[in-house]
Amino acid sequence: MKMAGNPKFAHNKDAAGEPGVNRRRMLAWFSGFGLFGSAILSAFSNLVFIKPRATYGQPQRFNIGKPEEFPSGTRMALDTRRVCVVREGDKVAAISTTCTHLGCIVSVADTGFACPCHGSRYDQDGNVTGGPAPKALPWYKVSLAPNGEIEIDKDTEVEPGSYLNV
Amino acid sequence: MSQAVKPPSLWTNMRELPANVWHSLFRNPLPTDDLQRSSTSFTNFFLHIHPVKVNKNTLRPIYTMGLGLMSFFLFLILVVTGVLLMFYYVPSTTQAYDRMLDLRGTVAFGIFLRNMHRWSAHGMVGVVVLHMCRVFFTGSYKKPREFNWVIGVLLFLLTLFSSFTGYLLPWDQLAFWAITVGTSIAAYAPVVGKDIQFLMLGDATVGQEALLRFYVLHVAVLPVIVTLLVAIHFWRIRKDGGLSRPEETATPVAVSVKAVELSKNKTYGLQGFVRGPFTKIGNTPDNSVFAWPNLLIAELFVFILTLAAILTLSMMFNAPLEEPVNVMHPPNPAKAPWYFLGLQEMVSYSAFWGGVGIPTIFVLLLLGTPYLDRRTAGVGKWFARERLLANTIFMTFLIVNVVFVIIGTFFRGPNWEFVSPWK
């Protein structure tokens, strides 16, 4: 087979005058790149494979009940949901109770939140007041579901201090 | 076809069957002279990993302390006990803990095998670290052993990761919170941290997916990688001419022959293609001895010592099993396994620097050691004066970590407050 119409290869001959050696080398390079590239791609496809598209653990968005169940002044930690529901007047908010340090559950204290494992302390709004925690506790988006219940979406963080009026 | 040789009769075949089977298995009789010792090592798969002759320095107990072998034997014990435990373990959040209780109550030798597995894992972490110290303090990572040091560092990290992934499997409080903390530390890695955490857990929090993932890593992925790297590690020791040793003071008796100069008629040394001068039979240096039986007996001794230690520990102390997982109530303080307590202590000062920054720098320094310290002096001697600087730096890292581990173990109480163990 000749590399017709390709001047670069047509004029390239090795010492013995045999044409086509460079073509072979080029094909070898292409095959090499092809194999190597496929290997890289399949390695990435493994990563895609082990990253779950659906998770079966706790839902990140859930309803917690009617606003009436949380009278004004409530600071109720829902430990299983790892969130603390705060109601002041007509305003409702949800503050994470997962410590931003190493993922322990912070307990609700008079002064705010405290991590029992590594000593991080937060104020009522989740701002760090002591310990190794690097940042404040996140606030989650709170909305009213169509059935009138409060819905918390842990996938969406909101600015600390933003409340939902109910 | 030749009809001249008459095939042996059936009776002869039957009569010679045991001997024939035996000789097909073992090509040599038990060796009585040096030539047979050579061919025994040379023709046996398991002995072939050994050279026919080893330098006497290799066998000095005070030089290697058998630490590398000990790590390997502990790995073997872990594989055997681990496979046995797999017969009873189920990686399910609802069953795992009950299976642990089963091991304690209903399975014959169940608690004993679990003890052996747990103490071998702890022992392996310790012995691998000590082995790394031995190699460092004797300067054994230097040319031509640079890459074997790199493999060794990778094996050290894999040992830690294997132990860590095994930690979750009993699904008790200790396991759950150690993994919560451990994966949170991983999340501090820049850019990819959160993704790594999600890939490890397979979910937003530690749960069934995480348990299954850690199980697969622990029983399949990591052991296969460790086995492969151990094989390369050992193979490289052979190819690098055995363990490191000090420069020979006397003129070596070995005849130096360049590989390219070998003609077809040349007799190759049985020692094979090790780097450096070839050794011809009958012209060997005085300071080497036959691997059979000297090296084999030394290895057997280390194996028996290791096994005896693990058996004794397993009979005396039970592996800890805490309360079943309670997501609502983290223990206070939640402590990682002892070898990660230095890390946890650093993390309590700065999450990023303690958990990611300093460990990364430390691992990169370890990996780069043979390429940064390239002077050839002081190889094969403990704490050689020529290596004072390198040894001091390494020792400093080591002592700092040990101090942190001790603080984390004994001086940290609830809320990670500083407590005194003496009151």
TrEMBL record, chain A:
InterPro entries: Rieske_2Fe-2S, Rieske_2Fe-2S_sf, Rieske_Fe-S_prot, Rieske_Fe-S_prot_C. GO terms for cellular component: membrane. Keywords: 2Fe-2S, Disulfide bond, Iron, Iron-sulfur, Membrane, Metal-binding, Transmembrane, Transmembrane helix. Residues 62-142 form the Rieske domain. Pfam families: Rieske. GO terms for molecular function: 2 iron, 2 sulfur cluster binding; metal ion binding. The chain crosses the membrane at residues 27-50. Its cofactor is [2Fe-2S] cluster. Gene3D superfamilies: Rieske [2Fe-2S] iron-sulphur domain (2.102.10.10). It comes from the Bacteria. This is Rieske (2Fe-2S) protein.
From TrEMBL, chain B:
Pfam families: Cytochrom_B_N_2. GO terms for cellular component: membrane. GO terms for biological process: respiratory electron transport chain. One of its GO terms (molecular function) is oxidoreductase activity. The chain crosses the membrane at residues 62-90, 119-137, 149-169, 174-192, 212-235, 295-317, 346-367, 388-411. Residues 32-246 form the Cytochrome b/b6 N-terminal region profile domain. InterPro entries: Cyt_b/b6_C_sf, Cyt_b/b6_N, Cytb/b6-like_sf, Di-haem_cyt_TM. Keywords: Membrane, Transmembrane, Transmembrane helix. This is Cytochrome b N-terminal domain-containing protein. It comes from Paludibaculum fermentans.
